[in-house]
Structure prediction request, 435 residues.
Amino acid sequence: MKTKLPSLLTMLLPVVALADDKLDTGDTAWMMISTALVLLMTPAGLALFYGGMTRAKNVLNTYSMVVGAFVVAFVVWIVVGYSIAFGTSDSAIVQIFFGGFSHILLDGISWHSLSGSYPTYVFVVFQGTFASIAVAIASGSVIGRMKFSTWLIFVGLWTAVVYAPIAHMVWGGSGALLFDAGALDFAGGTVVHMNGGLAGLVLAILVGKREGHNKIAMKPMSIILTALGASLLWFGWFGFNGGSAFGANNIAGLAILTTAFAPAVGAIVWIVLEYMAYKKMTLLGAVSGIVAGLVAITPAAGFIDVSGAFVIGAVGSVVAFYGVVSLKQKLGYDDSLDAFGIHFLAGLWGALAVAFFALKDDALLWDGPLKANGDRLAQFWVQVESVVIVGLFTLVGTVAVYYIAKLLTGGARVDKQTESIGLDEVVHGEKAMIL
Prediction:
């Protein structure tokens, strides 16, 4: 095993050709395990988390939208997304926003190519699981009213047009806009959670509210399934954050610690807030706090210690609670399963907070104001720049992709009869047994 950690920049390069690169079996094993853990988060964790909160007549459609998002996004990732995110362009101007098409269908990458100390193919799959869960998050905002065909087309286009360029700008290495600016995003606070959460809000507004929204009770099918899904998400998140250290190293250990601690704090804070507001302590509230804490810690997991994790997890839960309980009602949008309230808002908080809690250690940071001269305020403005650019790109890109998908499928919303009966029976010809 290595005694010195490779630089984060080196670990992010898609195909590293340095003379001293050498396969490390420990790093390789950890990255393969982390990849499997992150894969588990979508077709199992997120699908169950969302499915349990959905009305019984739409639970299979909910599960199908999450799994459908995963498989379509992953195929698009292999075909073109990875190249856009981590390829290189001959034009320095293009490279700022876009990685190019040098690795279409992984062209130019072989089974013996290395990314630092482990196979590049493992890096490709690891990053593909991130792309897949990012778009799957957005499905929670439009459950029960969006055409399945429109959703699948949207997923494919969004992965290539929105997600991959954002991943490139933040993680794409030298020449990429936000990477060069020194933006800190350890495991996807901006790239995955803000991106997916904001896309969900945009879809919810464009598709429109559910019939009977705020007029009839829309009870979740099974809180137990939601709790199980949250547990699987937490389990998989150790790969999500721990794997983003790109090796079996001390940074991975730090990320594992903060990923265990912050969501525990988030759960306690949500329960307290819920009791103060309603004199009730619900299981749904507890698991929502867990997920909020996980989202908030993601951009900071490998950069901070437990004191920072405590504050980020606690405030992340407060921010998400406000988004779910208050902001949604004030603004009147119908975000079915609160993708925006939890993923965007908690991710936004974590992305900004990392500037003030990141440890001043060269081994932990990208190049940026904090690493260069310890200037936290300057780092904060870099973080602001990153969330604004990601937000604007996601907003414009999601609107464009939505209207293309809508045009190709003759409308994005199911008819009123289908919505009334339920998408499980009408669209999928199946019916779930209520647990």
Q: What stands out?
A: Strands lie at 114-115, 118-119. The radius of gyration is 21 Å.
